Amino acid sequence: MKIIYLHGFNSSSNSKKAQILKNSEVVKNLGFEIILIDLPNSPSKAIQEIEKVIKINSENISLIGSSLGGLYASFLSNKYNLRSVTINPVIYSHLKNMKDLIGPQTNYHSNKKYKFTTKMFNELLHLKVETLEEPLNHLCLIKLKDEVLDHKKTINYFDKAIMNIDQQGTHEYSDFESKIPFILDFLH
């Protein structure tokens, strides 16, 4: 089985969770292959890039997405009927409060500066999924102390999906490694 890991906004395939997943002994022992992608800043280009990888690896593939990568994972899971795991994901209803993303940005890992444009923000708005077609294809990991996203909206959106909700922890999801066996069990 192959898993595409989708990082969050201003992040990269070098993110902490991506590297933990890639280097996990549990992942290796169970024979999972982790595919890491450095996603373009443009959401439409990011979706195109992910879709290319999905089409090349069309059988036995699933998605894990963190934050903005969670929005991408939910959208593509719904479109291609794939299993996905989202970690403190952005959902469509969060976006109206995220217009402050428009403007100068810096990637956390490469320190590359770029401008997140109004056009790019509008591309995010085109990723709206009103209802998850197969809600049981989705596992959503939520930290109630997420300081970035409103967990109540996330819980409401994934109400028919499988959720793992923790009282403690932040948007970073620092105990991600401990969830890997649970994630793999769901994706298997």
Explain what the structure shows:
With 188 residues, this protein is of the alpha/beta class. It has one domain: Rossmann fold (3-Layer(aba) Sandwich), CATH 3.40.50.1820. It is built from seven helices and eight strands, in the order βααβαβαβββαβαβα. The strands form two sheets. A six-stranded parallel sheet has the order 2-1-3-4-7-8, sandwiched between helices. The protein has a two-stranded antiparallel ribbon with strand order 5-6. It is 36% helix and 20% strand. The model has no long low-confidence stretch (mean pLDDT 94).
Helices and strands, with pairings:
Elements: E1 2-6, H1 16-23, H2 25-29, E2 33-36, H3 43-56, E3 61-66, H4 68-80, E4 84-87, E5 103-106, E6 113-116, H5 118-125, E7 138-143, H6 151-157, E8 162-166, H7 176-187
Parallel strand pairs: 1-2, 1-3, 3-4, 4-7, 7-8
Antiparallel strand pairs: 5-6
Instruction: State which percent range the strand residues make up.
Output: 15-25%
The low-confidence parts are none
Domain tally:
1
Strand-pairing-aware structural class:
alpha/beta
CATH class: Alpha Beta
Number of helices: 7
Strand order of the biggest β-sheet: 2-1-3-4-7-8
Task: Report helical residue fraction.
Answer: 25-40%
DSSP, total strands: 8
CATH topology: Rossmann fold
CATH architecture field: 3-Layer(aba) Sandwich
The main β sheet shows up as: 6 strands, parallel
Order of helices and strands: EHHEHEHEEEHEHEH
Q: What sort of overall outline do the alpha carbons produce when their principal axes are compared?
A: globular
Instruction: Give the termini distance in whole angstroms.
Output: 8 Å
Integer-rounded radius of gyration? 15 Å
